[in-house]
Amino acid sequence: LMSMVVNRMKSPQAIFEDAISDAIHGDHPRHLQMNVGVLNNLDPELSLAIFRDRFVDCGDFTFVFVGSFQVDVLKEYVAKYLASLPSTDRIEAGRFNGDYPKEGHTEVIVAQGLEDKAQVRVQFMGDAEWSTENNYAVVVAREVLNLRLREILREEKGGTYGVGVSGGISREPIERFATGFGFTCEPSRARNLIAAALEEIKRLKIEGPSRVNLNKVKETHTKGYQKGLKENGYWLSQLSSTLKEERELTSILNKEDLFESVTPEAIRAAFESYFADENRLIAILYPEGFEEELK
Description:
Layout: H1 2-8, H2 12-25, H3 36-41, H4 44-55, H5 71-82, E1 105-111, E2 118-127, H6 132-156, E3 163-170, E4 176-185, H7 190-207, H8 211-228, H9 232-244, H10 255-261, H11 264-274, E5 280-286
Parallel strand pairs: 1-5
Antiparallel strand pairs: 2-4, 2-5, 3-4
Helix pairs in contact: 6-7, 6-8, 6-11, 7-11, 8-10
C-alpha cells in the first residue's frame, strides 16, 4: 500500500485531483487525500475493527436479483445463504458531517507533467431540491451542453478533441447539485476555451436549448431505454436506484412519459438553477514550464 501511495504522489493527475479537493474542502476529515503522512497515521487495528463492524450486521441489506431463474429455486438459495448472514437488528441512518464545499469563485492552477497539454475542469455547486423531474432536467441539460460544447470547442474552434459534461442532484446525505465540464487542449488556449464555454452556458440560461438538440437528447434516451428493458444490467440498476429512492417500481415502466414531459423552458430553467455561477471552480493542469499562468 505504501508503494502505491508513493507512486500516486508522482502522478500529475493525482496532484491535480488533490489540489482541487483541498481547494473545495480544505482539511475536512472526509476529504483527506491518501498520502504518506495519512497512511503512517492509520491504525490497522482500528481499520479492521471498523471493517468488521460494518459487516457484522446485514439486517438492513437489500438484495436485488435479475435474470433467468426459477423463483422457487432462488427462494431456496436465499433461505440457505442469505438468511444465515449475521444481523444485530440495529437501525442506522446516514448523517451529514458538515463538509460543505467552499462558496464563491475558486481557482486552482497546477503545473505538473511533461505532456504539452492542459487539462481543464469547471464545476458548479449548490443547494437543490431532489426529485425525479429535477434530476432528469439536470441530465438533459448536461447532454444538451455536451452537444453544444462539442460543436463550439471542437468543431468550430478546433480547440479540443473532446469535451465531457457532468451533472446531477444528490439526495443523501443532503440535497445538492453538482455540474460541470472538462476538456484537454493546448495550454495557451485554455483560458479562451473556458470563456467560450461559459458564454454558451450564459446563452442557454437565457434562450434555452434548440428544439433540434432537445429532440436529439430525447431520442437518444428513448432508444437507450427501449434497449435497456431487454438487458439484465439495466433492470438491476433501475431496481436498485428505485428502491433506494423509495419510488414506485412501476415508475421504471413509465420512463418515456418523463422523457416527453421535458420542454425547452424546463431545460432553460435547469441551466439557470444548476449551472448557477455563484459557486464555481475553475481548475487547470498545465505542463511544467508553462509560465503564462504562473507569473
